[in-house]
Amino acid sequence: MPNDLLFRIGAMSKTTGIPVSTLRIWETRYAAFTPRKTEGKQRLFEERDVSKAILLKQLSNEGHAISAIAGLDLEQLRRMSNLQNNAHSKLGAQGEPVTLAVVGLGLAIRIESKKFATGLRQNRIKVTDVLVDLAAAAEAEFGESPQVLLIKVNTLQAGVQAQIQNLVLKHKFAQTIVIYNFAPESVIQAMKFSGLIVRREPISDIELAELLQSVVFVDQTRAQEFGTRGSVIASRKYSDETLARVAGISTNVLCECPRHVAELISQLASFEAYSQECLNKNAEDAHLHAYLRSISGSARSLFENALEKIAQHEGIDLHEEKNKS
Predict the structure, then answer these.
(1) Sign of the Cα pseudo-torsion (246, 247, 248, 254, in order)
(2) Do the Cβ atoms of 53 and 109 come closer than 8 Å?
(3) Euclidean distance between CA atoms 233 and 215, whole angstroms
(4) This prediction's pTM
(5) Is the dihedral of CA 238, 239, 240, 246 positive or negative?
(6) Pick from 241, 234, 203: which is nearest to 216 by CA?
(7) For residue 322, what are the CA distances in angstroms to 5, 19, 32, 138, 164?
(8) Contact between residue 191 and residue 86 where contact means Cβ atoms under 8 Å apart
(9) Residue 89's pLDDT is what?
């Protein structure tokens, strides 16, 4: 297939950190890969092979015999890796890891590499599902209900935006991050308005790690006392228009509470977006801005819950715009 990304064995070695000689042994002796071959008999490996090689390396370093795992397919290796990671996490930390579904094999390869893992400073991330593209994701059943959806697309057009929105609505991900190469500004703004995090390539492994970190809230006190633990921050529930409408409603029972809470949510959402933009622009301060975005997003989510209680008590319809449409 001409659109496939193919790797020569040298490029595969550089990407995975596995010597060429080892890759050849895994291929010829243990049948771990079945590369395509050019007319000149040069091996051409697919992205799936690269991802498999990374997992084989990780699992063999954990003590698994290559002869026992080389014949497993990619999904079986991922399940083994997740079980191994879960065992390690129970020894040193309480709470479950953040679950992540990845759309795009190239992106999955990056996340599964040890180089990327070192960039995650506070929260371990468990990859539960890897899909080739949006079409495959649309048909997939996500067994573990991943909290975060991470998507890589080359071109972000209106049709692609609709596919992503349908996927988010179907599976109710807490947060969705979209990495793209090219996109019109109108589509980017529409996706941001919908609560999605959108970031343009190029993005380094460390920046990507910080971007994932920014959607997780960590209780720092508990993290220091018990080990790392965190929860995914939900995306925005209410638009600026809804908050402005609520702020303009006068009530007799709670006085100015609806206005004050709506204004606080709007301010926190603005600072959350500001921190996200700083995270995108300033690699040197990325960790700080990821933390600030995490804190402000968590506070915004808590006040949204408070606003719902106020609205219920006061009989305010927070979804009036949707009902009218």
Answers:
(1) positive
(2) no
(3) 6
(4) 0.61
(5) negative
(6) 234
(7) 43, 57, 53, 25, 20
(8) no
(9) 46
**Contact indicator for 233, 217 with CB cutoff of 8 Å:** yes
Q: Report the C-alpha gap between 6 and 12 in whole angstroms.
A: 9
In this prediction, residue 160 carries a pLDDT of 92
pLDDT in tens, 74-104: 888 877 776 655 544 443 344 567 788 889 8
Class of domain 1-73: mainly alpha
Query: Is domain 93-215 classified as CATH 3.30.420.40?
Result: no
Mean pLDDT for the chain overall: 78
C-alpha Rg value of the chain to the nearest Å: 22
Query: What pLDDT shows up at residue 153?
Result: 92
Structure tokens at 119: 């960039």
Helix ranges restricted to H, the chain: 9-16, 20-28, 47-61, 66-69, 74-92, 105-112, 114-117, 134-139, 158-171, 185-193, 205-213, 220-226, 240-247, 257-281, 286-314, 320-324
pLDDT digits (tens, 9 = 90+) for 299-320: 888 898 888 888 888 788 887 6
User: Does residue 36 register a pLDDT over 50?
Assistant: yes
**Exposed / middle / buried, residue 219 (Cβ in 10 Å: 0-12, 13-18, 19+):** middle
Give the DSSP letter string of 198-211: EEESP--HHHHHHH
